[in-house]
Amino acid sequence: MIKEDIYLRTLDAIHDEIVNTTTNSTRTTAPMMMMNDTNIKDVIRGLSVAFTNQITGESKVTPTLPVQDTVSARLISSLISLLQAYRPYCNEDESNNIQQQQQNNTTRLLLKMGQSIAVQSLNMLSKFISWVDLSLVLNDVILSYLWDCLHSAGIGGDDVGQEEEADGNTKLSIAASKCFNELLSRGMEGCGRKIDLLVRLNLFQELLACQEQDGGLTTEGRKRRGVDLKTVDATHIEAVIAVAELVNLAGIELLSEWDDNFLSCSSSNMDQVLLSTVSLLDQMMKSFFLCLSYDDIDVSGAVVPLALRLTVTMGKELDKCKAADNNQDDSNNIQFLSSLPFSAFNHLPRLLSTIYIQMRYPADFEFDFEEDEDAEEELYRAELRKFYRRVVSLYPDLCLSFLGNTLSSLSTPLSTTPTSDMEASLRLLYHHCEGIRPPPGTKTILRNETFRSLLVALHSSDVSHHSHREVLMLYYDVATRYSSLLKDHPQLMPSLLDSMSGVRGLQHPHPKVRSRSCYLLLKLVKDMGQNMRPYVETAVGGIQSLISNPTAFPIQPDDTLYLFETIGLLLGKTGLSVPDQRRYLTAVMTPHVQSINNVLQSPNLRRDPDEYGTILSSSVAALAYLSKGFTRQTPPEIQEVLFETVKICLAVLQSLPEHEAVRNKCMVLLQRMIQCLKEGVLPSMPSFLALLIEHCNAEDVLDVSQLLNQLCAKFGPIAVPALDAAALPFFAKMPFSGNHNFQQ
């Protein structure tokens, strides 16, 4: 066995050397190496070395001996001989020979080596298939061996999971799938050659024949022959994945041939090639649906590219409808497409149903996307959503009908609907607008009364009382994305705001829900504008009580900024009278400013400047975000209140001028106050600039320069007194001055 192993390893090394030509080459040497490697392969294939005509630039090779006498023929023959000789080792069941293995380790080693040689032989064959003459492989003997190996995959189950090493037969099955993949990946010139190849391989029919058996095991407990695409764990998962990848590649190649050469054909004029192609397409779709609906994301995900490729064919079918002057609406298109010998559209209803089923997460899914397995589940579903968006762009009416049927089929009340069903349905609803044309899809789809009625029904339900956090967050996402609807249905707002600001939102036990609710509430308030006027007092009071009691429902600093900005927008953008604005703003700012003063008076401030600097910088940032609700035409009464933020900000900067975050947030606030207070901010600027320039470093000197630029651009000559004392110290700090002294 050792010499066979050495032989296979040598072949592998030679193959890598003459195929992977640019691995160890530079840009200048790569073309020469590629030419040399091509010449070597030509010799192995029995072709004359390529000679380039210096006049025409044409390169031509010719056979020097019959294909069956070439080196490549002998190599293929040797690999098949090794496979025949060592294939029986893969049929040995180690579990039945445990006692023998314990008594004789040599026997166990020989068994492993025999299996390895058989698998290596087939893997090596797959590498040569990509460039040797196809006639050496496309014969009954070799194809029979390939199918026999592919059908021999071992059984799956709890004891043979994907994480465990596959047995010998399963490895052979995977290697056989690679061989078929290489055959289908070959470049072929000429119309219908890939069709001829698929007919010769009988690929889909071979796979489908295995699915006609009942279950994955015989009554005696033996595995049935073939890769079972119906019963989970009836076949080792790695072999099923390999077959799914094969179906994906074969399907894409077949659809490409169909689109390029046969899509324009009609059912009334079908020759033998067209009949064969249509038959292959029908078989392909059956195999595709078996893989797509398989209860494993690696298997199902392997054919998602084929699902996306089907949308390309659907698009070309629609183009054909346009060419036939038949593209008036979906009903006319459906009638026209039904007359085609094959139409991808005819499979769309089943596709949508299968995609929806696969979009549902397992019942025990944790929704912890930082975990690798959960992240893979989410990536898989992101690809499914991409398919849905493409289909919506092609057939919006049909997809809207499917969406309506899906939502109406949910068990009621929605508060008790299974999480997987509710989450998947809300996902379809949320992403539906992304496929709508013309953009923006959100505005376009909200003109559709059917879609609006779905949203109204959702808001009128008890979905906000669902127990799972993901359903709550997704519902709030949907409500915010389609918030324009709420302007026409104000009666829906109170229950939504109550949910988002109460124990099912801002006060939810889970931090992720609280965080998401902070952001979405801000987005909702921005979108609704003056429509939020009736809810200002309740909303501001609720948010303020939440901010003032951080121990009850801890909120991250960044999320707190969202809440302060929300309050600012509620006060400044909803049409409140100036006295009401002043009253609410004072009520919000007073406790916040007092909390900053308490920190400034703490005896531990200088002992732990890092911790207290972080607290103070966050507090100053909150004031800056609060001011975002006020425009450049801020009334004097409001300016008077906002000026208090300048005073407390200066006190913070004077306490910890060396803290970078404090300096940064103070500059953010000043930039906001320049907009709100106008010239009223200038008297305070010399004190700010002196500290900022003195303590700035290489990281924030540009921020200081931006502040100076803003003052100059906003006020012009009026800013001179405020900037006069700062100019020379600032230039001394600049890197190009030659005398800078950054505080590192």
| Uncertain stretches of 5 or more adjacent residues | 159-163, 217-222
The main sheet comes to:
2 strands, antiparallel
Radius of gyration: 35 Å
β-strand percent reads under 5%
User: What is the number of helices?
Assistant: 33
Side-by-side strand order of the widest sheet: 1-2
Count of DSSP strands: 2
Task: Note down, in words, how this protein is organized.
Keywords: Cytoplasm, Nucleus, RNA-binding, Transport, tRNA-binding. Pfam families: Exportin-T. It is found in: Nucleus; Cytoplasm. The chain has 744 residues and is mainly α. Strands 1-2 form a two-stranded antiparallel sheet. Helix 10 (237-261) runs antiparallel to helix 11 and helix 15 packs antiparallel against helix 16. The chain has helices at 2-19, 30-44, 71-90, 98-103, 105-129, 140-150, 168-185, 193-201, 203-211, 237-261, 272-292, 297-302, 304-323, 330-337, 348-359, 372-394, 396-408, 419-431, 441-445, 449-460, 469-481, 484-488, 493-501, 511-528, 536-547, 557-572, 578-600, 609-626, 636-655, 660-677, 685-695, 701-715, 720-733, and strands at 51-52, 59-60. Among the domains are: 1-133, no CATH class; 138-213 and 223-341; 577-744. It is built from 33 helices and 2 strands.
